[in-house]
Amino acid sequence: MKLVSVLSLGIFLILASSHYARAQRITVDFATTLRTHGKKDFNRRKFVNAHGNFGVPTYARGFMRYMVNDLGVSFSRSSNEGPFSGSNNFPRRLSLASLRRDGQKKINAKDPKYNPLLTKNINPHRIATDRADVIKEFHKSKAKTKAAISFAPRYFELFFNKGKALPRPMFYECWNEPLVRWREFRLSGRESEVSVIRRLAKICGRLCKSVKARNPGMVIGGPATAFTRPFYEDFNQFKRRVQLFIDQAKSAGCLDFVSQHLYDTGGGVLDGNLDLMETYTARRNKKRQPMKYVVSEMGSYSKTWFSKRKNVSSPPRSGRDFLIIAENFKNFMSLLRVHDNVQKIVSFLTLDPTDPRSTKKYRYPWSLIEKVGAEKIRWTPLLRYFQLLKGISGRFAFSHSSHADIKVHAVVNRQSGFIMMQNLHLRKTYRTSLRFPYGLGRAASRVIIRQLWLNAGKPGRADRRQDIPRAGKIIWSNKGRKSVPKNILLRPEAMYVMQVIFKKKMSERRSIGRFRRYVARVSTDKGKRLNFPYRIEKGRAIRATFAKLPFRSGVARIRISQSRRESLKNKPDLWLNGKKFSNFDASISGGKRDYHKNYFGTYEISVPLKFLASQNNPVVRVKFPDSGGHISTFLLEVDTCGRGSCCLLNSLTGKDRC
Fold first, then answer.
1. 174 and 298 share a domain?
2. Mean pLDDT value of segment 223-252
3. I want to staple 319 with a disulfide (CB 3.0 to 4.6 A). Which of 175, 268, 376, 468 is the partner?
4. Cβ burial, residue 373 (10 Å; 0-12/13-18/19+)
């Protein structure tokens, strides 16, 4: 069945209502594989990681075994494995003989914190980095900087051995969060932020080139940004930090991936940031391919939760724990949309009872365990994040949500199908209806549903002291049932994972290919080229032109990311290939964040692919009735179909059952 034979241009646009009484549609087909730029696998080694390493004292090994063996979690990033903190050789013992001798000592040493059961799970797919403080050891001297750049590749070459000790890490992240501390790395009190970041980026680029020359297979990147909010200062902070770092590192040597830390960004902010990162790096690449992306920390953060100066935590609160879990899940759900380009996702959740931050009166806010005696520990509620993701493995299957606030992904293997959902809004509750256009029938032998939400109450004084927006009790449910529910209630920020266990083995019957296309040119109606970010002016049209689309059957989603004040109109007048469209929703996922006067996020307009591809160079044209704010990106996300999968795209209107 062809898409255009069923859908006219007008009825195809999918309306998303936020009214509680109207159920939002969740559409899933386990037999249809979703290939995003050819990638289809849900890779736990990439996507399900905690922060730290596998080393724990004897009394905590049972907890580590549960994380690794039962929940399938890897511990994949440590600031103690980088070249300047993983050894004591720099800057004094740098002779090749010293490095070989000290490297062999480390390889032969038996760390009592590791045991054979856990050691076998330590793989190269982890991130080594250094604290930013190590920069102070060499950055003011050209000779010391040169020595550091020569030392790093020898460290990775000589201090790791896959057969006898820890295997060499695949990822090297130059430093941890250096850009936010740029003032500490000035050569003089007058040196500007731009000058400092340019120098650091060039050192990182030279480290990249040097390390890769002696360690084939390693990938090097940065800058591990502390706060990923690109719309601050009308995107100028992004331009003078992230953009500058990427450009200077690549010009000085190389940069294989961009790494960022995602705190309180899930939903609209991260959606817009991902489109911006991909669009910018693709335009800087001759092959028009975006740089690979690494999330080396993510979650939620407030300076009121932990004093770095005193090394003391604030008292634990249920609202704080829920916020950390919910923000991790929000980021996770946004990142899976571009899983083909994401190389690593590390949640900032730790398991180390010997960490000094975990030994005080109150537990470290991001710790998975807490001490209840000299050598007794217990789980904290943060464990629920990884319990939600337990067992998920296989290939991505087709799924779709009718509302921006509700994100959904489906994964399937031969024995089970998994549906992951989250309501990203802080206040709204949604009723959803679950639809299987090709039917599910009696394919399910058993269903397991895991849910997590907050039974919210008014924040008290203790909550307000820690900037916790929602207080209450965390509700966890892990229940089995015989059949798939038709309707699901998603409370504010609620997380929901359904596992459908099949009676017979599930096989792939259909396929949908998903691709992203980046804007070729942005201009005014008169042809004047506009530079990022694209300032919104009353009555001025902004035209985004794309290269020719080689696809015909399927759906095209025009993604527009913008930052404006809520008092201004969020929905522009819009034309696609000269035809005006008004029947679309400009809501962003999760709504506005409270830490800035502007909102930032992405909305989509869906149209038949045949219509958009009918013009050699598709054009998106927008015009606002008022001035203020910026558009950061225009991007096309294309779903191509065939052999029965076009029917799935037709069914999103609810008018056609496959």
1. yes
2. 96
3. 468
4. exposed
Same domain membership, residue 382 and residue 284: yes
Q: What is the pLDDT of residues 148-180, one digit of tens each?
A: 999 999 999 999 887 666 789 999 999 999 999
Mean pLDDT of the chain: 92
Q: Could you tell me if 28 and 89 lie in one domain?
A: no
Cα-trace Rg, the chain: 25
204-217 pLDDT tens trace: 999 999 999 999 99
Residues 506 and 517 in one domain: no
Q: What is the DSSP letter of 113?
A: T
CA atoms of 470 and 321, how far apart (whole Å): 11
Can you tell me whether residue 361 is helix, strand or coil? Answer: coil
Residue with tokens 């050209």: 142
Would 2 be classed as within a structural domain? no
119 and 78 assigned to the same domain: yes
H-only helix segments in 410-531: 461-465
Helix (H) or strand (E) holding 167: none
User: How many C-beta atoms surround the C-beta of residue 139 within 10 A?
Assistant: 20
Domain count, the chain: 3
Count how many Cα atoms sit within 13 Å of the Cα of residue 655 in the half-sphere of its side chain.
11
Cα of 402 vs its chain's centroid, Å: 22
Beta-bridge mates of residue 128: 78, 172
Residues 6+ apart with CB under 8 A from 239: none
Which residue has tokens 């920069």? 135
Alpha-carbon span 144 to 132, nearest angstrom: 16
Find out whether 68 and 82 touch, Cβ atoms under 8 Å: no
Examine residue 275 and state whether it is found in any structural domain, yes or no: yes
Domain shared by 374 and 307, yes or no: yes
Q: Would strands 630-640 and 534-535 be described as parallel, antiparallel, or unpaired?
A: antiparallel
The residue among 362, 388, 414 that closes a domain is 388
Looking at the whole model, is its pTM more than 0.70?
Answer: yes
In three-state secondary structure terms, 480 is strand
Dihedral of CA atoms 328, 329, 335, 337 in degrees, nearest 10, equals -170
Cβ atoms of 558 and 549 within 8 Å: the answer is no
Distance CA 610, CA 243 (A): 35
Q: Which domain holds residue 554?
A: 512-640
Question: Which CATH number goes with the domain that contains 97?
Answer: 3.20.20.80
Q: Is the pLDDT of residue 655 over 60?
A: no
407 CB-contact burial (10 Å; exposed 0-12 / middle 13-18 / buried 19+): buried
Could you tell me which residue, 111 or 383, shows the higher pLDDT?
383
Please tell me whether residues 210 and 302 are part of one structural domain. yes
DSSP-based three-state secondary structure for 565: strand
Percent share of the chain, pLDDT over 90: 81
Whether the bond between 437 and the residue before it is cis, its omega within 30 degrees of 0, is no
The token pair at 91 is: 């800057």
Residues 466-477, mean pLDDT to the nearest whole number = 96
Q: H or E segment at 282?
A: helix 268-283
CA nearest to 226, candidates 186, 280, 183, 178: 178
Residue with tokens 């820890």: 166
* 295's tokens: 């999330």
Kindly tell me if the per-residue pLDDT of 20 is higher than 90.
no
Query: Tens digits of per-residue pLDDT, 194-203?
Result: 999 999 999 9
CATH number reported for the structural domain that contains residue 527 in this entry: 2.60.120.1200
- The secondary structure of residue 368, as a DSSP letter, is S
